[in-house]
Structures are given as C-alpha cells and as structure tokens.
C-alpha cells in the first residue's frame, strides 16, 4: 500500500517509516520544514511538503494514498485548544478522503486518563477527554469505521523511550540534574507505563497491515513501573539521590510535568498483543536508564507538530 504519514520526521514517526518500508509499503511523509524533509528523505520515504493546518496539502497527499498514519501533532501546551482543533480537522479530512475505501487510518492517542480504580487500563476502557483534547478525537476516529474506513486508535504509553528520547523522561532527567535530586511524589508507588520506541513503531506497522476497523490498541510494554523505581534509576544514572517530594510541593518542584508524573496510570496491552501478535522485544525503561542512555538527555521544546 501507499501510506501517507504525518509526523514522519518525529520521534515515533521516524521509527515507523522504516518499519512500513520493510513491510513492503510505499511511504509519503509530511514535512513542514527543510530539516524535516531531509529526515524523511533520509529514511527512504517520499517527501510531501505541507503542515497539519494546510488542509489542501493534507487532502492532496491523502487522496494519493491507500491509507494514512496520523502521528503529527502541535505539542504546544500554551495552545492546547488550537492544537486540538487542527488535529480534529485533519482527522475529519482523512476520514472523508478514505471513506468507502476500506483503507487504514491509524491515529495516535495516549493511555493517560484511561481506566481507574487501581486496575490497569484496558483497550475497552474509555478515556477521560478532559485529560487531553487529543483523547476526544479518538472517538471521532473510531466512528469513521461506519464509513468503511479501517480505523485504529493507537494509545501510546506516556513514555516512548530509547536513545534520543527528548520527552517526559528526558524532562525528569534534566530536572534531577538541575535540582540535585531525582524526585518522586509521595511514596512513589503510583505507576507509569512505558514502551520502547522501536516496539511502538512495530505496533503501528501491524495496525496498518491487519488491525480490524474500530480497533483500540495499546502501545504499552511495561504496564506500570513505580515512579520511585524510575526516580531511583535516574538517580543511579546521574549520581544523585532519589528523594520523595510531598504532594503539596509537587507543582513547585516538578512544574508542568508534576500533574502527569503523579498520576497512577498503569495500562495493559494484553488484548493488543493477542489481536495482532505484537511481541515487544526491546529494553525496558529502567534498563535504558541504567544503560546510561538518558545521561545526557535534554528535553525537547513543547512546540512542535
């Protein structure tokens, strides 16, 4: 198939593209800058210049493809409503273009805010759309199955880790470097799910190839690592102590990431593995930390797309 990929030059997308190519697909990657275009071309994909808010460009690319993998997003926490609006319009457009074709539309979401009551969230649990507006768009994606679009929502763990990660864990590492302690909130028993970037990419490729319409998939390898264990691994990597931070001081110490890191957000991927035969094979998060892969990590800007 000919697959159009948004976010093709990003952290997850740049791993998905090689997997799709290796599976025999032709890939067209969206690029909004010269740097992104160079990355996409270097991965072996065709380059389509444009952006998520350029609907004419998106329509042209999707119309020339058999399916779409939508990973791109404007990750700017200062403009969350606008980012959600752009994302929803893009999904609506992809649904219109693919309607009646049975082609795949695979869209990224997240597991944060799903489930509750102390049990790991499952693929059948419904998310709380107030956690992040991107979650609500997942409901729209699934509804497009009624229009003969082979839709799949891939809910990623909040940490998609590996060498070069500039996300949540890199932020925690930088915070520990700056403050001299690797912090966790309270007793650190709340759980944080994770998946290696390369395993996540494999799941997206499997979704393109064989996920049934209306699928919800969990890109989660480790369903819940205690945040204290994560902090202790960060501490070992940097040579700083792991230390509890009182809940009423979490916002002061952790800043914006404290609200996320303090959640108990365990998530299961048992049904995903059974449905698609997905078998994660790469190191876990603590292994990556202990191997020193985050020692020099620096977080990425919140702006992006």
TrEMBL record:
Family matches, as Pfam families: Epimerase
CDD domains: SDR_a7 (cd05262)
InterPro entries: Epimerase_deHydtase (IPR001509), NAD(P)-bd_dom_sf (IPR036291), NAD(P)-dependent_oxidoreduct (IPR051783)
Ranges of residues in domain NAD-dependent epimerase/dehydratase: 3-210
UniProt protein name: SDR family oxidoreductase
Organism placement in taxonomy: Bacteria, Bacillati, Actinomycetota, Actinomycetes, Jatrophihabitantales
């Amino acid at each position: 198939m000919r697959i159009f990929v948004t976010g093709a030059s990003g952290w997850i997308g740049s791993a998905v593209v090689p997997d799709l190519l290796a599976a025999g697909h032709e890939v067209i990657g969206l690029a909004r800058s010269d740097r992104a275009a160079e990355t996409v071309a270097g991965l072996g994909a065709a380059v389509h210049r444009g952006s998520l808010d350029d609907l004419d460009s998106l329509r042209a690319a999707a119309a020339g493809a058999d399916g779409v993998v939508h990973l791109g997003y404007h990750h700017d926490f200062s403009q969350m409503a606008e980012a959600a609006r752009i994302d929803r319009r893009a999904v609506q457009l992809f649904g219109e273009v693919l309607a009646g074709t049975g082609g795949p539309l695979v869209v990224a979401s997240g597991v944060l805010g799903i489930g509750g009551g102390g049990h790991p969230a499952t693929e059948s649990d419904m998310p709380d759309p107030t956690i992040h507006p991107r979650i609500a768009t997942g409901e729209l994606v699934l509804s497009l199955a009624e229009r003969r679009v082979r839709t799949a929502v891939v809910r990623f763990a909040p940490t998609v880790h590996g060498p070069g990660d500039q996300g949540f864990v890199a932020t925690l590492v930088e915070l520990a470097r700056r403050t001299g302690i690797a912090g966790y909130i309270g007793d650190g028993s709340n759980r944080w799910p994770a998946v290696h970037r390369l395993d996540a990419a494999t799941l997206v490729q499997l979704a393109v190839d064989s996920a049934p319409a209306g699928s919800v998939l969990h890109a989660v390898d480790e369903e819940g690592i205690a945040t204290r264990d994560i902090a202790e691994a960060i501490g070992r990597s940097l040579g700083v102590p792991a230390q509890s931070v009182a809940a009423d001081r979490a916002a002061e110490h952790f800043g914006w990431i404290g609200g996320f890191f303090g959640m108990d957000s365990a998530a299961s991927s048992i049904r995903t593995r059974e449905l698609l035969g997905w078998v994660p094979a790469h190191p876990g998060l603590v292994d990556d930390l202990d191997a020193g892969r985050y020692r020099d990590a620096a977080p990425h800007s919140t702006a992006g797309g």
